[in-house]
Specification:
The structure holds two protein chains of two kinds.
Chain A (H helix, E strand, L loop, with lengths): L3 H8 L12 H4 E7 L5 E7 L3 E4 L4 E6 L3 E7 L4 E3 L2 E4 L4 E8 L6 E10 L1 E3 L3 E3 L2 E10 L4 E2 L3 H6 L4 H6 L1 H11 L2 H16 L7 H10 L7 H29 L3 H4 L3 H18 L9 H9 L6 H15 L4 H14 L2 H24 L10 H22 L5 H19 L8 H22 L29 E4 L2 H10 L4 E7 L4 H10 L3 H7 L2 E7 L5 H9 L7 E5 L11 E2 L4 H9 L2
Parallel strand pairs in A: 8-13, 14-16, 15-16
Antiparallel strand pairs in A: 1-2, 2-8, 3-7, 3-10, 4-9, 5-8, 6-7, 9-12, 10-11, 15-17, 17-18
Helix pairs in contact in A: 5-6, 5-13, 6-14, 7-12, 7-14, 8-12, 8-13, 8-14, 10-15, 13-14, 15-16, 16-17, 20-22
Chain B lengths: L1 H14 L11 H8 L2 E7 L4 H8 L5 H10 E7 L13 E2 L1 E5 L5 E6 L4 H14 L2
Parallel strand pairs in B: 1-2
Antiparallel strand pairs in B: 1-4, 4-5
Helix pairs in contact in B: 4-5
The chains are: A alpha+beta, B alpha+beta.
Chain lengths: 584, 129
């Protein structure tokens, strides 16, 4: 009754001059254009007395995948018949954002779908319109690509491995202070890597060359100068990246760059394992060392600056993370500050070394080789992680497995000597890696559950209800047409069926299970139209063959024409079915 | 007494003309049997025009009497049922008038008021041989 009242009231003026209705293309005139801010204005001009269902209007971005819809400004909604509607021609203001930068002028493909009614008493079928627009992406903002990253099935292990990634993420999410503190921390951590060792002799040299009678104050001052100069070098690198490297992230998306970077990381890793040493030309290093006894603040500053260049290749991995971030934001100030903060962190231990005049020097030993190896493995991991975007997941899994096994063996999984903790860890890595390898062989691509193929599959999934009969299942006209074309000239039976249809089950379990029927059906190409979902495709399929509901059996002749008179609707007994087949 | 009244009420309401919808499967057979024409109404849940036609126009005495005398009517929900391919529509409600041999006589897009609809019913009926 409630529903009736508005209709009755409406009825007074409703349908009075319902002479002719607008055709859909007159009722709805979709449009789309780009404004000067590179926002897309997309909407529908409505004909007379036409309104739209607000929740049926949807704007979608179809291409390219490098862009995303950041915001859609929707027009005002009017309540009508208890439905949310648009009475005035709605205009949507779509703000796009860049996920990955590739080209500047992009063809952007958008679609708007809509459904509406005429007040005079006709509701139109849903419709959709596509538009292709030229958009200057350089005027669009970037988005944090965190969503994209979470979509990729990156296991926790790979996330740990990817120094570049975690650094880039930290700066993106945190406030400035947290960012700077984090970078300070990263710097401190970096100073515990062998990267800093080339600097120790230099700073010691600088301090000692000042001669005797050097006060602690002066030593501290000089160390700070040295570290600051080093920091400036990194800061400049950061600012430059911010200014010029705005395409860094985009470059990191192109396959050959990824291969190249991945290769660089492998090379760095090899140097970590001691296959060769990565450093600037000896001549340059000697030059720097020679001058290390130059006194004065300026000399020390120059030393610090040059040292940064010497260590540069060693800290490449975390540096890349920072530079990628700076490139992404284009924020030269923040990027510079972050790198400055990081180098200060790196410098703190150096200051301690300088002040103590070499008394607190870390002693090289076996542990340093171990640190080297761990970093080498990490860098190989980063190399694999970078490839993840462009290489098949199962290959990635194989690579991780090989890396893990190799690293575990390096740590000495099967050696009897060594600390129990080390052996346990290496054994765990070994077992995990082996399971990854087994998972790869079994066709799994999950880093977290490589052995999931061992789980018992859910019962019934693989059980066919038509035992002994091979049905080709289709759900759309296209699929069916393909199959029909292939089997032209053969006897074809098309079975409309759905899981929710009881008669279909009877047909399958009684009639198709019958031996005589099966014998007869051997001559046929059997196609099952599964209309369980009853979506657009399935409905179109049913409509094409005039099937109101399953089950229905349709027979095709050799010219692929439907033999209409032979169509069976509903359940049929095996005996009658055999007779029917004989009549064909 | 109560029961009598109740029956009377039931009886009375059934007198208030109400078109009886037939299932689409049987519609042409019945039409042949009873020598009537066929109306197929294509509708959809929640479409105001469809509700108006079902709740107001088809309940109009003149319309419903004329339909029950001369037509067999079926309603198809375009979202729930597979509409035959030849019955095209770009919106709901859409009315198809057919003869018992499944030939389309007339197509009406959208709703009409009772007076107009009755007129359409009569016009189509007049073309019947």
């Amino acid at each position: 009754m409630k529903k009736l009242i508005p209709i009755l009231i409406l009825g007074c003026f409703y349908l009075i001059n319902a002479a002719s209705f607008l055709m859909p293309d007159q009722a709805f005139k979709p449009y789309a254009e780009v404004n000067e801010k590179m926002q897309v204005e997309i909407g529908i001009n409505l004909g007379k007395d036409i309104y739209l269902y607000a929740d049926k209007v949807e704007v979608k971005l179809l291409a390219p995948e490098t862009l995303t819809i950041e915001d859609v400004k929707k027009p005002e909604i009017t309540m009508y018949h208890g439905e949310k509607t648009y009475f005035k021609s709605p205009n949507f203001l779509v703000t796009l954002a860049v996920k990955q930068k590739l080209e500047i002028m992009q063809d952007v493909k958008l679609s708007i779908s809509y459904q509406g009614c005429s007040e005079q008493g006709l509701c139109y079928e849903p419709s959709e319109q596509e538009f292709t627009l030229k958009v200057d992406t350089s005027k669009l903002q970037n988005v944090a690509d965190t969503q994209e990253k979470s979509q990729q099935s990156v296991s926790s292990q790979t996330q740990e491995l990817s120094q570049t990634d975690s650094i880039a993420n930290t700066i993106k999410s945190g406030s400035t202070l947290i960012i700077l503190l984090t970078f300070l921390g990263f710097g401190l951590l970096l100073s515990l890597t062998p990267c800093v060792f080339p600097m120790i002799p230099i700073i010691s040299g600088v301090i000692i060359s000042q001669g005797e009678g050097l006060t602690t104050k002066r030593a501290f001052f000089l160390s700070v100068i040295y570290v600051l100069a080093m920091a400036i070098a990194y800061t400049i690198a950061g600012v430059l990246a911010g200014l010029f490297g705005s395409n860094l992230q985009a470059a990191l998306q192109t396959p050959w760059v990824i291969y190249a970077f991945s290769g660089v990381f492998v090379a760095l890793a090899m140097s970590m394992f001691g296959f060769y040493e990565l450093k600037l030309p000896d001549s340059l290093v000697t030059k720097v060392s020679k001058n290390s006894n130059r006194s004065g603040v300026v000399g020390v500053a120059i030393m610090g600056f040059l040292s940064a260049l010497i260590v540069g290749p060693c800290v490449a991995a975390p540096l890349a993370g920072a530079l990628v971030y700076i490139g992404q934001t284009g924020d030269a100030l923040l990027g510079g500050a972050a790198l400055f903060s990081m180098s200060i962190g790196m410098g703190i231990p150096l200051i301690i070394v300088g002040v103590s005049a070499g008394k607190f020097m870390p002693k090289p030993g076996e542990w340093m080789i171990m640190v080297n190896a761990i970093f080498g493995a990490m860098m190989l991991g980063v190399a694999i992680w970078m490839l993840e975007k462009i290489v098949d997941p199962s290959i990635i899994m194989l690579l991780y497995a090989l890396l893990g096994i190799g690293f575990a063996l390096y740590l000495g999984t099967f050696k009897t000597e060594g600390h129990i903790l080390k052996r346990t860890i290496s054994m765990i890595i070994f077992i995990y890696s082996v399971s990854l390898f087994v998972g790869f062989l079994a066709g799994s691509s999950s880093m977290v559950k490589p052995l999931s193929f061992l789980q018992i599959p859910k019962s019934g999934v693989s059980q066919s209800s038509h035992q002994g009969l091979g049905f080709n299942v289709v759900t759309s006209i296209e699929e069916l047409d393909k199959l029909l074309e292939v089997n032209k000239g053969k006897k074809i039976m098309l079975d409309f069926s759905a899981e929710w249809c009881a008669a279909c089950k009877e047909l399958a379990e009684i009639t198709f299970a019958n031996v005589n029927v099966q014998e007869k059906l051997k001559e046929y190409v059997l196609i099952k139209a599964d209309v369980t979902q009853n979506g657009t495709n399935e409905k179109a399929l049913s409509r094409k063959y005039g099937v109101f509901g399953p089950p229905a059996l349709i027979f095709f002749d050799k010219e692929l024409k439907v033999m209409k008179s032979k169509t069976i609707v509903g359940f049929i007994e095996p005996k009658s079915f055999v007779a029917h087949l004989n009549s064909l | 007494m109560k029961r009598v009244l109740f029956t009377l009420v039931i009886f009375a309401t059934s007198l208030i003309a109400d078109v009886k919808f037939t299932h689409i499967f049987d519609i042409y057979d019945i039409a042949k049997e009873e020598n009537k024409l066929v109306i197929i109404m294509l509708s959809r849940e929640g479409c105001p025009g469809c509700e108006h036609m079902q709740d107001v126009v088809l309940k109009d005495i003149g319309v419903s009497e004329f339909i029950s005398k001369n037509y067999i009517i079926a309603n198809m929900d375009v979202y729930e049922e597979a509409v035959p391919e030849e019955l095209e529509y770009f919106g709901t409600p859409t009315f198809y008038f057919l003869d018992a041999e499944e030939n389309i006589l007339k197509r009406v897009n959208g709703g009409e008021n009772a007076k107009k609809f009755l007129q359409t019913l009569k016009e189509v009926q007049a073309t019947k041989k």
